[in-house]
Write a structure and sequence with these properties.
The structure is a single chain. With 175 residues, the protein is mainly beta. It contains 2 helices and 9 strands. The chain has an 8-stranded antiparallel beta barrel. The protein is globular. Residues 1-23 have low confidence and may be disordered.
Amino acid sequence: MKKVFLLSIITVFTLVFTSCSNDDDAVSNATEEEVVGTWNLTALEATDGKSDTTIEGTTIPATFKAVGKDFQTIVTFSEDPQVVTSEGSYTTVLSTTIAGANDTQEQEGEDFFASEKWRLDGSTLYFGSGEEEVGYTIVELNDSKMSLRYELNETVESFFGTSTVSATYNMTLSK
């Protein structure tokens, strides 16, 4: 049961790009020209992670945090057309606490932008299109650094059961 739950948390972590953003600390003057270019992924983390997974009528609460390391990922924002791609790898260290038991696992991450459309609207950077479009709050943006944040609050159905997951995700890209 513990392995099944850990797999569901890891799956949720890799699906974090299905969340919506919160723009309380947003940059107010972001421009497309500042976003366009090649960036290196330098930080990726999930904090304040909480999950309640219901399997066959039993709810299992958990907390988690995830921190990236060994970044070898390049993210490119093209201008015309506005497409974002990534290539390379990184490692995610996922720490969970389930029913008082702590566990830490490492998972190899791969390209997380598979040629998706992007657009900028104020302080929100959107990825995808239509119903699949997701907004990230731009917390910092200058010539050498872009910091993105989003709040995950999702219910995910899987063959394990139903998981309600919340966390704050932060990503930093540098030139």
